[in-house]
Design goal:
- The complex is a heterodimer of chains A (about 260) and B (about 220).
- Chain A has about 260 residues and is α/β, with parallel strands linked by helices.
- Helices cover about 40% and strands about 25% of the residues of chain A.
- With about 220 residues, chain B is mainly alpha-helical.
- In chain B, about 80% of the residues lie in helices and about 0% in strands.
- In chain B, α1 packs across α4 and α1 crosses α8.
- The longest helix of chain B is centred in the N-terminal third of the chain and has 40 residues.
- The chains are: A alpha/beta (about 260), B mainly alpha (about 220).
- Chain B: InterPro entries: AA_ABC_transptr_permease_3TM, ArtM/GltK/GlnP/TcyL/YhdX-like, MetI-like, MetI-like_sf.
- Chain B: This is Inner membrane amino-acid ABC transporter permease protein YecS.
Chain lengths: ~260, ~220
């Protein structure tokens, strides 16, 4: 298969709430297997952009294209529902606050969607749950409820839940921001494993060290625009834009201190 | 206090209590149905349904249940609705409590963390699937206690049908006062029986709530 188009393509993305413009004509492409970090101050629009990719926060203008198919198609309600559910099955998402289903066991959190949407058998579901949970090191907690897990464990289960749908693309919305510092590493480890497996990932993060370590490209956003983008070595060590330098001075010094 | 009188009449009060229980069960079931329909309408995508749901709630919560009952039972025949007193009691009070239950159910559904539905939709579940599998199971747990409050109110509310001569507990008390002239004993006996019913139901609801509560 020859790829003529980028895997993920965001074209002229605009989003406004009334007169407040949150995203101002953003253009962005991500290649298959690429790992991209989106960084920037809060209110810069980075989470909004991420949530526009699976149309959770619909854009007010522009388009998102995944693997040749437009995600945010304007369709009549019923057709849109069908289309977006199809698209979302291919796009995994991990939230800051995990959003595990508290009334279901870890197993059922992982296999509910595959059972409902792919009609897999009980046996296949059990196998899938074991496989996905082993992958994030949570197999021994398969019969637990979310309330019995630590934050880091919850987030690992949330990642397993997203992966169980075998997505083409994973979105991480500040996946470690709500965690106690000592729990961040276990989640980062899981994300690193995914990186090694060449999962395409778009990661909104505040962790510069992780972004530098794992990502192929860093995108710095501020005020609803992409201010600067490039390989982490370039963006972090030789930022060209004053706004990037300003932001990094605050955040990297923090990271230097931690080291 | 005339204890002998109480011992003599209490079997009749027990029979009347059975009618009160029947009325309670039927009005609560009807109320739950109306409440579910009302909550569904109030949370609909369609403005017309939302309006209908809101109108239902405001009309039935905004007027006395007794007026609604009289309107149905005494006013009904004038517009071709012929119901016996028991039927009118069940329908009138059931639809009335349904308006309160609408708000209880709607409140529980919107109280489920927004991120829950979002996570379900992100996995590719349809609106209906995400409601059925993720939001509703959590909302049901949240609504047990507040529905318990509605149910408690409704059991006591069945006393209103005494006003249209349904022979339940309150009406029975009034009737025996007419023949014995002992209102203290008769109302006390009726009150104790209400208290027993309410206490048993309340314990049941607490038990159910503890059983299914999420940590």
């Amino acid at each position: 298969m020859t790829e003529t188009r980028p895997f993920v393509e965001i074209r002229h993305a605009k989003k406004s709430y009334g007169s407040l413009e949150v995203l101002k004509d953003i253009n962005l492409t991500v290649d298959r297997g690429e790992i991209v970090a989106i960084i920037g101050p809060s209110g810069s629009g980075k989470s909004t952009l991420l949530r526009a990719i699976n149309d959770l926060d619909p854009l007010t203008g522009g388009e998102v294209i995944l693997d040749g198919t437009q995600v945010n198609k304007a369709l009549p309600h019923r057709q849109y529902e069908k289309h977006i559910n199809q698209m979302r099955q291919q796009i995994g998402m991990v939230f800051q606050h995990f959003n595990l289903f508290p009334h279901l066991t870890v197993r059922d959190n992982v296999v509910m969607a595959p059972k409902l949407l792919k009609g897999i058998s009980e046996d296949a579901a059990q196998k899938l749950a074991e496989e996905q949970l082993a992958h994030v090191g949570m197999l021994e907690r398969i019969d637990y409820y979310p309330s019995q897990l630590s934050g880091g464990q919850k987030q690992r289960v949330a990642i397993a839940r997203a992966l169980a749908m075998k997505p083409k693309l994973m979105l991480f919305d500040e996946a470690t921001s709500a965690l106690d510092p000592e729990l961040v590493e276990e989640v980062n480890q899981v994300m690193k494993t995914l990186a090694q497996e060449h999962m395409t990932m778009i990661i909104v993060t505040h962790e510069m060290e992780f972004a530098a370590d794992v990502c192929d490209r860093v995108i710095f956003m501020d005020g609803g625009v992409v201010v600067e983008e490039g390989p982490p070595t370039v963006v972090f060590q030789n930022p060209t834009q004053p706004r990037t330098r300003d932001f990094l001075r605050k955040h990297l010094s923090q990271y230097e201190k931690e080291k | 206090m005339d204890v002998d009188l109480i011992l003599r009449v209490y079997p009749y009060f027990l029979e009347a209590a059975v009618v009160t229980i029947e009325l309670s069960v039927l009005t609560i079931l009807l109320g739950l149905l109306c409440g579910a329909a009302g909550a569904w309408a109030r949370l609909s995508r369609f403005a017309l349904l939302r309006f209908a749901g809101a109108a239902y709630v405001s009309v039935f919560r905004g007027t006395p249940a007794l007026i609604q009952l009289f309107l149905l039972y005494f006013g009904g025949p004038q517009v071709g609705i012929q119901l016996d007193a028991f039927e009118a009691g069940v329908i009138g009070l059931g639809v009335n409590i349904g308006a309160y239950m609408t708000e209880t159910m709607r409140g529980a559904i919107v109280a489920v963390d927004h991120g829950q539905g979002e996570a379900a939709r992100t996995l590719g579940l349809s609106r209906a699937q995400s409601f059925r599998k993720v939001v509703l199971p959590q909302a049901l747990r949240l609504m047990i206690r507040p529905l318990g409050v509605n149910i408690n109110a409704q059991i006591k509310g069945t006393a209103l049908v005494a006003a249209i001569s349904v022979v339940e507990l309150t009406y029975t008390a009034q009737r025996y006062i007419g023949s014995t002239y002992k209102p203290f004993e008769m109302f006390l006996l009726a009150g104790v029986l209400y208290l027993i019913i309410i206490t048993v139901v309340g314990k049941g609801i607490s038990f159910l709530d503890r059983r299914v509560r999420l940590q």
